[in-house]
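I have been asked to look over a protein record a colleague put together. Alongside the sequence sits a line of tokens, each denoting a local backbone shape. Please read both lines and tell me whether the tokens look consistent with the sequence. I do not need a full report, just your reasoning and any doubts. I have pasted the whole thing underneath without changing anything.
>
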Amino acid sequence: MRMTLIGFTVTTMILATACGGGDAADDAAPAGTAPAPATVAATGDTITVEMITDGDGNIFRPAQITAERGDVLRFVLVAGVHNVHFVADSNPGVANLPPVSDMLQLPGQTHDVLVDLPAGKSYYFQCDPHALLGMIGQLTVKDEDDD
């Protein structure tokens, strides 16, 4: 009986160590995997983009957005369950795309994206579970000269 209790204690200690209990530094992402810090501040307008599921399907409204560097895109859940993802495959060669959002599930939840992408180009985003149903959008970042 004593051998079983010792074995149980050692096993418990090993599992506890493997499942956590380390330093926060141990849990940190490896070097080079953190998103790059923003190079512009949120100094512009806040542009609201609704995320909707209704009789017309799953949509971003508006789906075509023009913004300037420093603007903020505020994605607001109206109905359904949606996220925002600037997919690398749809934006080849673009570094530092905004990170994918969590799934928004409650009406009124928001996800903000700072427009910190090179000007003069268009970038594509989608709702991952509804992209094949047409829930895609396009962000065009204006050059400062485009007034």
